[in-house]
UniProtKB/TrEMBL annotation:
Gene3D superfamilies: 2.60.40.1820. SUPFAM superfamilies: LEA14-like (SSF117070). Residues 48-132 form the Late embryogenesis abundant protein LEA-2 subgroup domain. Keywords: Signal. Residues 1-20 form the signal peptide. InterPro entries: LEA_2. This is LEA type 2 family protein.
Length: 158
């Protein structure tokens, strides 16, 4: 009887172990934010974009096609091919040099001169792929973002 009970326990343990999940790969929608804007003396912007990978595996970011909207009429395109891999459940940044139009330059200059925060939204597409797999476009529509002047760093918003 004891031998049967022992064999039954071993058999049940083996069955439970065989059915246990290893967790698998979880692919989640990535996110993007403007981490910083530095305005140079000529009015060009060095934009630091933060790419967030919420997946349980690394993701390769091939392309972004985003629009930063600072108000109803000030829209700045952010297009790049970062070709970077972000580890699982992590984030990384890349820099993008842009020359905004006159309206955007004045809008940012006014915010910097007055020391006020700058709300913005970010929308568009982020193309990302798990590991070496094929890329997929993820739609991004983030609201309630904000950049503020950085004390001691003229021309910088974070």
């Amino acid at each position: 009887m004891t031998l049967v009970r022992t064999l039954l326990i071993i058999l049940l343990s083996a069955l439970v172990g065989a059915c246990a999940s290893t967790g698998g790969a979880r692919i989640s929608e990535p996110d993007a934010r403007i981490q910083q804007i530095q305005v140079d003396a000529n009015g060009r912007w060095n934009v630091t974009v933060r790419l967030q990978n919420y997946s349980s595996i690394e993701m390769r970011f091939d392309r972004i096609a985003l629009m930063a909207r600072f108000d109803d009429s000030t829209v700045v395109p952010l297009n790049a091919a970062p070709a970077m891999t972000v580890p699982a459940e992590s984030a990384d940044v890349f820099n993008l040099q842009i020359t905004p139009d006159a309206q955007a330059k004045l809008f940012i200059a006014d915010a910097l001169a007055s020391g006020r925060s700058l709300p913005y939204t970010l929308g568009g597409k982020v193309s990302a792929a798990p590991g070496t797999g094929g890329a997929r476009d993820y739609i991004l529509d983030s609201k309630h973002n904000q950049l503020s002047p950085v004390p001691g760093l003229p021309g910088t918003l974070r």
